[in-house]
Specification:
This protein is α/β, with parallel strands linked by helices. It has a single domain, classed as Rossmann fold (3-Layer(aba) Sandwich), CATH 3.40.50. Strands 3-2-4-5-6 form a five-stranded parallel β-sheet. The longest helix has 19 residues.
Length: 185
């Protein structure tokens, strides 16, 4: 990976997550009936960070779940012969909740569509909202995020990587040149 630029450092990520948490609370008029579900992999630690901030402000920690959308992808046949499963863990009833799906990067919209399909098999939330740290454009489906940390216009030949402490030992967002491989969703 050829790193071209750092889009966000640790502090910028922290500020964006803090702002998104406040926007979620404002839009939903508090944390009552609110739940967060992180899309595997990097959406999961981001959803936990959002829940931490919401708890600090409201005194109520919204339930947090993890969603693996592997089998809901429309490009499953293009993935490896044995795709890696990261597991779904939603330890609460989603029905009637104001549900916020959390992901690291919004690109084509296909991951979000797959996540909504997966959620609808689990229950019927009152609302489904989308929070992303980075929106890089290039939508292929009519999907937009309700909460965005940063809009970063990119070319299709570039890659946005969100590094999170849980997996990478650091928090930052970098822009690099893509070298082969498939495009993320």
């Amino acid at each position: 990976m050829n790193e071209k630029a750092q889009i966000m450092d640790h502090l910028a990520m922290q500020r964006a997550i803090y702002r998104i948490a406040h926007e979620i609370l404002e839009h939903n008029k508090g944390a009552q009936d609110l739940a967060l579900i992180g899309i595997q992999r990097r959406g999961v630690p981001l959803s936990k960070l959002l829940a931490d901030h919401i708890e600090r402000v409201e005194g109520i920690r919204p339930p947090v779940g993890a969603l693996d959308i592997t089998f809901y992808r429309d490009d499953l046949s293009l993935l490896a012969e044995h795709p890696v499963l990261n597991g779904t863990d939603i330890p609460f009833n989603v029905t009637g909740k104001n549900l916020v799906l959390v992901d690291d990067v919004l690109f084509t919209g296909r991951t979000t569509r797959a996540a909504m399909d997966a959620i609808m098999e689990v229950g019927r939330p009152r609302t489904i909202q989308l929070a992303v740290l980075i929106d890089r454009g290039h939508r292929e489906l009519p999907i937009r995020a309700d909460y965005v940390g940063k809009n970063v216009p990119t070319s299709r030949s570039e890659l946005i990587s969100v590094l999170v402490d849980a997996f990478d030992g650091e928090n930052r967002v970098i822009l690099s040149d893509k070298r082969g491989g498939k495009e993320p969703c």
